[in-house]
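Researcher: Structure prediction, please.
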Amino acid sequence: MKVPAIVFLLAPLSLLAQSTAKNTCVDCHSALDGAAQRPALLIKNDVHTGNGLTCADCHGGDRTADDPGEAMNPAKGFIGKPARTAIPKLCARCHSSPDFMRKFRPQQRVDQFELYQTSVHGKRLASGDDTVATCIDCHSIHDIRAVKDAMSPVHPLRLPETCGHCHADQHKMAKYGIPTDQFDGYRTSVHWNALKIRGDLSAPNCASCHGNHGAKPPDVESVAAVCGSCHVLFAQLYQKSVHEPIFSGAAGGGGCIVCHSNHAIHQPSTAMLAGPKAVCSQCHEAETPGGQVAAQMAKWLDGLDSALNQSEAVVTRADKYGMEVSEAQVRLGDGRENLVKARLALHSFQPNEMKKPIEAGMAIANETLRAGQDALHEKDVRRMGLAASVVFIGITILAIWALIRRIESGGDPLRPASAPEVK
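Model: Predicted structure follows.
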């Protein structure tokens, strides 16, 4: 049976009528003071209110009754303030129903409650621990906003701070034996710099690695897979390296975090390979084959980076003088790409594989350096030619000026100045 189009046109109107209908809950709480008034103030910005839902949809009762006893009558389903342990199931009444959610957001996932039950939070809640995070600890209570809303506590820019409300609280984490420095470490990381400083909302946050509703710490054997969800090529090389089977069983964590840490992930540099703070030195002494290979890799990377910087400086200088060096500039981009490839190949820990892009990059660095130097030499030649031309033009102008003076003085312009005048 075909549904008349008028049904779809009237559906938003029914929601509007519901949202503007009598709501004694808000009327009463708006007239109160302090904490009792707060829900009535916050609910104005709530995503549920915007979709036509009211207090009674979560708390039960009769929102049209003027008598408080009738409005909050348990016989009409009034539950008042839900217990913390009951929150996830309460939210799931709607959010786990595909038919209900389709009325508002057809694309909305409806497996959040199932995922929550598999999380560390959900498992502890099921065991009777009512201090763990539930829906309201992350999404707030009466002013729940859409994830894309910049004011939402689960918006990418605010999510780390939201997680930190509990995980940076030493008192809350004491009974679990969980460190509380994750948020502070994250704020020193390249991920935080990309997210907060550069405003890249796709940059990793807590949920990117731990999950959101099904949040849990990655197992040691899955760390590389977690990092590899973004750093795909790095993970593929690492999985084939000699370190993968060794680090996968490392005490206290394995995989990528052995070298890069977990929350305080800083910009990688060759100082991680060689030097007083080298990560490699934790396992390889400088004089051992492993230490020597690490030092060689660092030398290759620094050498190529330095060569490309030198070449770029010369080419840039030539470009400022107006010389044609566009081809060299393009080739420098190829050189930088080889440097990236070399840094990528480092994760295979196979020097021969890393040497290939290093040699290709060095060839480009030398080629572009010569192009820049040739352009600067051509600039000098042009300057000398221009100087000679200016001198010649100057002499010519002086000669013409002298000739004009002689003509004006009545002399013979064709007679040399030293020749005697013929009468």
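Model: The chain is about 55% helix and 0% strand.
Researcher: Thanks, that helps.
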